[in-house]
Amino acid sequence: MSEEETDDVGDPVREEEGLDERIDGDRTETATVEDVETLRADVVAFADEVEDRIIKRDTLESDLKRYVRKRQRRGHARGWGPYLVLLYGTAMTIGAFALLNGGWAILAMIVVWLSTLGLYVVMVVVGLIGGALGLPGRLRDWISGLRS
């Protein structure tokens, strides 16, 4: 055994310290140095096995971030934005028909349609910019996935 391994579990037992016999009531057992060394090796092996099973925080955090990025819906409407655009267009259409008559109502409908379309285009552009800002993180995850 190396010196590092014995530091983890204590100093080796020496025969001259008088620890080679143990008395339990009527029974006397002799523990040899080989028995103690075998037991120490078993403890060190168990400690190594437990250490291997422990999940490191950084590894877990990077795995969770990669999982969340992968699970996000791509190419789909996210959040309330598209629904607010539809609500805006519906409210403006109802207002145009309720308050205006004749050609003014049709003109108002065209303006509402163009403004709703424009607002939708703005929302799409914001979504594209948001996706572009997330690209470096996805590339980092992809490269770290290749390395591991």
TrEMBL record:
Compositionally biased spans, kind Basic and acidic residues: 11-27
TM region positions: 80-100, 106-135
Region described as Disordered: 1-27
Organism for this UniProt entry: Halococcus saccharolyticus DSM 5350
Protein known as: Ribonuclease BN
Taxonomic superkingdom: Archaea
The entry's keywords: Membrane, Transmembrane, Transmembrane helix
Compositional bias annotation for Acidic residues: 1-10
